[in-house]
Amino acid sequence: MISHLCAATPVLYILWIAMAQIAAGQEDREKTTALKDLLSRIDLDELMKKDEPPFTFPKTLEEFEYAFNEYGQLRHLKTGEPFVFNAREDLHRWNQKRYEALGEIITQYVYELLEKKCNMTKQILPEERTDDEPTSFIYLSPDALSNPSKLLVLIHGSGVVRAGQWARRLIINQDLDSGTQIPFITRAMEEGYSVMVLNPNENYLEVEKSAMSSPLPSPTEPSDEPAEKRDRKDDKEGKKKREFYEKYRNPQKETETERIPIRENSSSEEHVLYVWDHFVSQAKAKNVFIMAHSYGGLSFVELMNQRETEVKEKVCAVALTDSAHNIWLQETSKGTQDWMQQHCCNWVSSPEPVDTLLDPMLRDCPRVSAGLLFADISL
After folding, report:
1. Annotated catalytic residue: which of 294, 299, 323, 350?
2. In a 3-state reduction of DSSP, which class is residue 296?
3. CA atoms within 13 A on the CB side of 253
4. Residue 185 contacts by C-beta under 8 Å, 6 or more apart in sequence?
5. DSSP letters of 242-289?
6. Less Cβ crowding at N or C end of the chain, within 10 Å?
7. In this structure, are residues 272 and 310 in contact, taking their beta carbons and an 8 Å threshold?
8. Could you give the residue ranges of the DSSP H alpha helices within the chain?
9. What fold, for 120-206+262-369?
10. Under a CB-based contact definition with an 8 Å cutoff, are residues 198 and 204 in contact?
11. Where is region (Disordered) located (predicted)?
12. DSSP 33-91
């Protein structure tokens, strides 16, 4: 009996090892499956935000410790250095939010320059409005409607720029003369022009979204487990999920917002059309000149589509810069195309010397080189 048992011991030992390995393998597989499930639930973007500082930034240039020097360059008050985007390494989203906060201050700074340096006034849009509806605005020189001779209309491109700006990035990284419309406005006024500065990106009022009720749980497949046992299991799994997400949650949730469009100014095209109907067409100037950058050129061509006869009668010349218009996609008439050939010119970024005539891409208006003048102007 003992001899049989001793003889069987190696077999039992091997069987025990095999069973242990199977059990361990099963446990490892369960752990691996659980780990995969856990990893699939991790939002890597959220994980990267875990140690992110609060999105609380200064409200003025002075609080940012920056100021524009006598050359219109943005410099640090203590070090005299240009603006540094990467204020904190490995925190790109926080650096971007900081940059955007500074950009909003720059926008207000440019508005002040339009009002104080250029002596322009803010005109609220739409003209006939209720007290509680969202509004936009443009800037007008004192003689914008009364000057009988010449009127200059400035239209910037798309993106974050607002009235008086060509490119926020150039304002911050180079100087005010490079990124704003101020030099164009002062030069025009010196030569007897009245001026209108449009604001085609101010299209909506952004407000905090009202809290939405939680969605109803989706129906689940029926289970054979007793309800009490199933509830305990669900509670246990739910607790684990909450603990996990609490550990890796984003500590600062960005506020959800919704946009309320501004009546008759909810897009760049609408804005340009509205300003034409209510201001440019009402101005006494016999000669209207328009300068439009990037998407502003597309908005001008759309104005031509809507008010072809009026534009032809009133506008003398149009200077486009890296215009985004497309006469095919915008379905412009042959009459508009012929008029643009004679009255428009599109200066585009090019390594060729300034004013070098370039090959036309479409049959609309001449394209000439602006050198690399507009290469850094972001949309």
Report:
1. 294
2. helix
3. 6
4. 114, 118, 120, 141, 152, 154, 164, 195, 197
5. HHHHHHH--SSPPPPEEEEEPTT-SSHHHHHHHHIIIIITT---SEEE
6. N
7. no
8. 2-41, 44-48, 61-64, 92-116, 168-173, 176-179, 182-190, 227-248, 268-275, 295-306, 308-314, 334-343
9. Rossmann fold (3.40.50)
10. no
11. 209-260
12. HHHHHHHHH--HHHHHTTTPPPS---SSHHHHTEEE-TTS-EEETTT-PPP-S-SSTT-
**Amino acid at site 268:** S
Strand partners, 367: 346, 358
Sequence-distant (≥ 6) Cβ neighbours of residue 113 within 8 angstroms: 164, 176, 180, 182
- Could you tell me if 98 and 87 are in contact, meaning their C-beta atoms sit under 8 angstroms apart? yes
pLDDT tens-digit profile of 258-271? 999 999 999 999 99
Distance CA 274, CA 64 (A): 37
* Domain definitions of the chain by residue range: 120-206+262-369
CB of 195 closer than 8 Å to CB of 151: yes
Provide the residue count of the chain.
Answer: 379
Is the pTM here over 0.85, yes or no? no
Task: Judge whether 294 counts as a catalytic residue.
Answer: yes
